[in-house]
């Protein structure tokens, strides 16, 4: 009876640790390119389902760029009026804690005006996923359409779905415990 009770305790512990974080995703902003000039962040965010609890990871050269969390007005004007929302580590994680629109810009020189800005919409955890957008997206007004015969751009990858080392450790520990019970 003791091995069965031990197995049940291990399974409960695994579920208690793994279940709350299983729904959250990590998104490396800009995919492999990270947070830098020349990346189309509107295109990168397109089709992603950002939810409360997810994390945005901004990876960038902190001697050349910053991340400023701004409001919609500051986003449109490319200014960061609240210096307390300025991130400068080069590897910043932001947990999305509330639903709604979120705006981020680079506050260095004219980087925001050159496209180094991101706006996303965060859904509540229980909200239905938004309908997927067609790929490739139609060109926005004022931009050129792709020329015939050229390949459509491929979506960039992100860190969404990465398994944390803690979660891996817990699953390995659970598997070892189950193996011990079976072998007894």
From TrEMBL:
Ranges where the record places region Disordered: 133-159
GO biological process, one term: response to symbiotic fungus
Subcellular location: Membrane
Cellular-component GO terms for this entry: plasma membrane
Keyword DNA repair tagged: no
Membrane-protein topology: Single-pass type I membrane protein
Transmembrane segments: none
Alphabetical list of PANTHER family matching this protein: BLUE COPPER PROTEIN (PTHR33021), PHYTOCYANIN DOMAIN-CONTAINING PROTEIN (PTHR33021:SF408)
Name of the molecule in the record: Lamin-like protein
């Amino acid at each position: 009876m003791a091995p069965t009770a031990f197995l049940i305790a291990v399974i409960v512990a695994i579920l208690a640790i793994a279940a709350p974080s299983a729904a959250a995703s990590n998104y490396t902003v800009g995919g492999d390119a990270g947070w830098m000039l020349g990346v189309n962040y509107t295109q990168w965010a397109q089709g992603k389902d950002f939810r409360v609890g997810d994390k945005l990871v901004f990876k960038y050269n902190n001697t050349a760029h910053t991340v400023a969390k701004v409001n919609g007005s500051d986003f449109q004007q490319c200014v960061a009026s609240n210096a307390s929302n300025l991130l400068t580590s080069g590897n910043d994680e932001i947990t999305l804690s509330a639903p709604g629109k979120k705006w981020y810009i680079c506050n260095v020189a004219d980087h925001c005006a050159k496209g180094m800005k991101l706006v996303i919409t965060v859904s509540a955890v229980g909200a239905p996923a938004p309908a997927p957008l067609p790929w490739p997206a139609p060109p926005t007004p004022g931009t050129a359409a792709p020329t015939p015969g050229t390949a459509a751009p491929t979506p960039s990858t992100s860190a969404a779905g990465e398994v944390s080392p803690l979660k891996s450790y817990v699953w390995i520990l659970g598997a070892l415990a189950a193996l011990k019970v079976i072998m007894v």
